[in-house]
Design a protein that fits this description.
Blueprint (H helix, E strand, L loop, with lengths): L2 E12 L2 E12 L3 E5 L6 H8 L7 E6 L11 E4 L11 H11 L5 H10 L13 H14 L4 E5 L7 H18 L2 E5 L3 H7 L2 E6 L2 E7 H7 E7 L10 E8 L3 E8 L9 E4 L2 H9 L15
Parallel strand pairs: 3-7, 3-8, 5-6, 6-7
Antiparallel strand pairs: 1-2, 1-4, 8-9, 10-12, 10-13, 11-12
Keywords: ATP-binding, Nucleotide-binding, Transport
Protein name: ABC-2 type transport system ATP-binding protein
Organism: Actinoplanes octamycinicus
């Protein structure tokens, strides 16, 4: 599989503070990838390393087979605050983009501006949050990058603005075939647009893969209390909870679960993400209080 981004033991420190440590992952090309994890997991730092805004303290990162370089025309980046120039009009943003980017697609830019209902004469500082996000996405996409990186692009948007932004994102992926990596806390939004998922916790990749395959391979089992070891080979227990009489397990299974004493349920994407985000915490395997 061709990689849009590949890291090995990637580390970045801000002085004494470590923001990313020993991160190893592979981002497949040609996919819309959701990057999710708790605050402090290193998501923003990873994306800034990928677009060359930061340099690694240790380890290695390759983007599109090359060392990341700031301003590369092959990579587009929309930061968390969807930066635009408040004193420039929408049209002036497009003019500036055309001057700075040799592969600038003016037709794409003007078409997206029209579709988003933006007034070319309006100054960016007067736009709503959703409109600024659409402008920032347009400028990044009109570079015609091979890889588009989005750091929490919809976090501050209202539901209607989020829906419009995500619709635009799906259209870009479908029409232009660019690889997209989007970090977000909003799992429902990721579920709408992403076909590949990476869960990053404490700089470590807890799980990664095709969304459909991940959902098909994970199950919640509920049944009479017993040891997780009784499941046998080919089944990894991700989370377990027990009362005196009942066990609830989340398992990743490469083999069918044919024991009729288990009730087998599928997981939602949010269930899957939360399970891996809480993996290793003491609460994951405790006996529930009041049910001893």
């Amino acid at each position: 599989m061709t990689s849009a981004m590949h890291t090995e033991e990637l580390t970045h420190r801000y002085g004494r503070r470590t923001a990313l440590s020993g991160c190893t992952l592979d981002v497949p090309a040609g996919h819309v990838v959701g990057l999710v994890g708790p605050n402090g997991a290193g998501k923003s730092t990873l994306l800034q390393l990928a677009c060359g805004l930061l340099d690694p303290t240790a380890g290695r990162i390759e983007v599109l087979g090359e060392r990341p370089v700031s301003g590369s025309p092959r990579v587009g980046f929309v930061a968390q605050d969807t930066p635009v120039y408040a004193g420039l009009t929408v049209a002036e943003h497009l003019t500036l983009g055309a001057r700075l980017n040799p592969a600038w697609d003016d037709g794409l830019a003007r078409r997206r501006i029209a579709q988003a209902g933006l007034d070319p004469a309006q100054k960016a500082g007067k736009l709503s949050g959703g409109q600024r996000a659409q402008l920032a996405l347009t400028v990044a996409a009109a570079k015609r990058p091979e890889l588009l990186l989005l750091d929490e692009p919809v976090a501050a948007l209202d539901p209607l603005a989020r829906r419009a932004f995500l619709q635009s994102l799906m259209e870009l992926a479908a029409e232009h075939g660019m690889s997209i990596v989007m970090s977000s806390h909003l799992v429902a939004d990721l579920e709408r647009v992403c076909d590949h998922l990476i869960v990053l916790v404490g700089s470590r990749v807890r799980v990664a893969g095709d969304v459909d395959e991940l959902l098909a391979g994970h199950h919640r089992l509920v049944g009479p209390r017993r040891s997780a070891e009784s499941l046998g080979a080919g089944r990894d227990v991700i989370e377990e909870r027990h009362t005196d009489v009942q066990s609830t397990l989340v398992v990743r299974s490469t083999a069918p679960i044919d024991d009729p004493s288990w009730q087998v349920d599928s997981l939602s994407l949010e269930d899957l993400v939360l399970t891996y985000m809480s993996e290793g915490q003491p609460a994951g395997s405790r006996v529930l209080e009041g049910q001893r």
